[in-house]
TrEMBL record:
Keyword S-adenosyl-L-methionine: no
Coiled-coil region list: none
UniProt record, GO biological process: aerobic respiration; respiratory electron transport chain
Source superkingdom: Eukaryota
SUPFAM superfamilies: 2Fe-2S ferredoxin-like
Keyword terms: Ubiquinone
Name the UniProt record assigns to this protein: Succinate dehydrogenase [ubiquinone] iron-sulfur subunit 1, mitochondrial
Molecular function (Gene Ontology), one example: electron transfer activity
Gene Ontology CC annotation, any one: mitochondrion
């Protein structure tokens, strides 16, 4: 994760803007995470908690799963089997 403490505020390093006028920026790992090395933190606890709350969508029943899978396959096949348009160069 690119979450870090940048100048005293927690944020994503990939999205946080640092002012041009600043001559220095202090970047540290998040205070509540275990540091493996430098700015690399151990994400094991985060992923275990994320898995435990099951924050993803779940299908209600087997029939819904089957129908959704079928529609997905039809959509994919349609995408693969689209006719290709070949444009020929004009002769001068």
């Amino acid at each position: 994760s690119c979450a870090m403490n940048i100048d005293g505020c927690n944020g994503l390093a990939c999205l946080t803007k640092i002012e041009d006028a600043a001559s220095e920026a202090t970047i540290t790992p998040l205070h509540h995470m275990f540091v493996i090395k430098d700015l690399v933190v151990d994400m094991t606890n985060f992923y275990n908690q994320y898995k435990s709350i099951e924050s993803w969508l779940k299908r209600k029943n087997l029939l819904t799963k089957i129908i959704c899978r079928w529609f997905y396959q039809v959509k994919e096949m349609g995408h693969i089997c689209k006719p290709k348009v070949i444009r020929r160069k004009k002769k001068l």
